[in-house]
Amino acid sequence: MNFIPGARSGAGSQRVTVAVAGAEFGWGSSGKLRAVMEAVRERAGVPVRFVGIGSGLGRPLLADQPVERWYDSGDQVREQVSAAVVVLDGAAAQGLEKAGVPTVFVDSLPFLWTEGDRGALPLEATVYCAQRCGELPVESRGVLGSVRRLRWVEAVIGKTESGARPGGAFRTALVSLGGLKAPKLGDWMRYPRLVVPATLAALAEYGVEEVHVAGNLPGGCASWVSSAPARTTFGALPHDEFLKRLAGCDVLLASPGLTTLLEAGSLGVPAVCLPPQNLSQIFNGRFHAEAVGADVRVAWPEDVFREEEALRLRAQGEDCALELIYGGIARARGAGLPEALGAALRRAQDGASWGALTAAVGTGGAAQVADELLALIRS
After folding, report:
1. Contact 79, 3 (CB under 8 A)
2. Domain total for the chain?
3. What is the SS3 assignment for 59-109?
4. What's the burial of 233, exposed, middle or buried (CB within 10 Å: 0-12/13-18/19+)?
5. 182 assigned to some structural domain
6. Which residue from 133, 273, 313, 328 could staple onto 320, CB 3.0 to 4.6 Å apart?
7. How far apart are CA 321 and CA 315, in angstroms?
8. Are residues 177 and 132 in the same domain?
9. Are residues 238 and 143 in the same domain?
10. Degrees (nearest 5) of the Cα angle 366, 367, 373?
11. In the chain, count of helices (H) and strands (E)?
12. Is residue 53, in this structure, part of any structural domain at all?
């Protein structure tokens, strides 16, 4: 990487430059970067200039942020950089530190890691911010215990405002599939081709009248669907628009990314978990269902893959578990999914403690990460 660490952005200028990077899967990393950048600008006291690395999938979600330039890789960067913040991209954080750039690494999935993942994690980062979770699994404790400078933070999400929600049957729904494109997944279309028709059929059968399907879906995906609510729309949403839709809907059905579940909890929106796309979403769905006190999680049938087997394989590293999960989804046929989703919707209608997971984790993480980053810059 061609950074000039610790330098300012111009002679005599008080403006500082911060590099940002996020994992190239899903939109959770971009959502967290957005929340942190907003908190940095609010708290910095001096102008802050951002340059981005990678995050090709999430760049549309950050279009309203002052990222002056994006680089496809760190090797292309020739910038005067004071510090960096990286979400879940261990290789990027390691590269920045090696180049002499003090880096705040944000780990929103500390419960996921085992000894098999140790080499991929930036345990020597200048600051390692791990997002609070439920009880940390014993397999993860040794890894997190090796972090040189560990800082536990609350949920890294944007600002939301909850309001009173009507009871009774659901009439409007938001379906969230996130970024979808896992780096090591061969046919990323397989998951939405299975889940979108099943979800829309379940919503139509339940009686939902209006639904939007959000995610980086290809054009023409409506042709997959044979049964859907009368007013059904598709398309990716900028983060602000996603939060507005989320706040205004009666129920969320989400591929269980943790950021989405925490945002829904902060708004008090009923949330049903679609079948997981990956290993972390198994944990996320379980955390959510346990916290809210309702069986609102839909798992894959055991002939697709057994979740306990995936959890056992993670001891050898996340990639071993993902091989089982991705292979099962590739072979799946989706039988029984509409019925399972319909049953979960009816259970959700009975009510639950929808904000419980978010309340347990807290919502101040973006400000806490921003403070760590600004402390590095000022030092």
Report:
1. yes
2. 2
3. HHHHCCCCEEEEECCHHHCEEEECEEEEECCHHHHHHHHHCCCCEEEEECC
4. exposed
5. yes
6. 313
7. 9
8. no
9. no
10. 90
11. 12, 14
12. yes
Task: Check whether residue 148 and residue 195 sit in a common domain.
Answer: no
Range of the domain at 65: 2-158+363-378
Helix axes 279-292, 318-331, angle to 10 degrees: 90
Residue 76: predicted pLDDT: 74
- Per the CB < 8 A criterion, the answer to whether 352 and 296 are in contact is yes
Render pLDDT for 287-323 as a digit per residue (tens, 0 to 9).
999 999 999 999 999 999 999 999 999 988 888 999 9
Residue 91 within any structural domain of the chain: yes
Give residues with Cβ within 8 angstroms of 269, minimum separation 6.
Answer: 165, 246, 247, 249, 251, 252, 354
Rounded alpha-carbon distances, angstroms, from residue 353 to 266, 309, 349, 357: 11, 30, 12, 9
Report the distance separating Cα 28 and Cα 108, nearest Å. 9
Is 211 strand, coil or helix? strand
| Pair (80, 201) in one structural domain | no
**CATH value at residue 107:** 3.40.50.2000
Report how far residue 82's alpha carbon sits from residue 220's, in angstroms, rounded to the nearest whole number. Answer: 45
Contacts of 12 (CB under 8 A, 6+ apart): none
- The dihedral sign for the CA sequence 171, 200, 28, 299: positive
Question: Of all residues in the chain, what percent are helix, strand and coil, respectively (each to 5)?
Answer: 40, 20, 40
Compute the C-alpha angle 175/21/72, nearest 5°: 100
Type and span of the H or E element at 199: helix 190-206
Instruction: Say whether both 186 and 219 belong to one domain.
Output: yes
In a domain, 195, yes or no: yes
pLDDT 10s digits, 123-181: 999 999 999 997 899 999 999 999 999 999 999 998 776 665 667 899 999 999 976 76
- Please give the structure tokens belonging to residue 354: 């929808």
CB 373 within 8 A of CB 83: yes
Angstrom distance (rounded) from CA 191 to CA 214 = 14
C-alpha dist (Å) from residue 278 to 46, 112, 294? 40, 11, 22
Token pair of 144, please? 């997190």
CB contact at 8 A, 5 and 99:
yes
DSSP letter (8 states) at residue 297: B
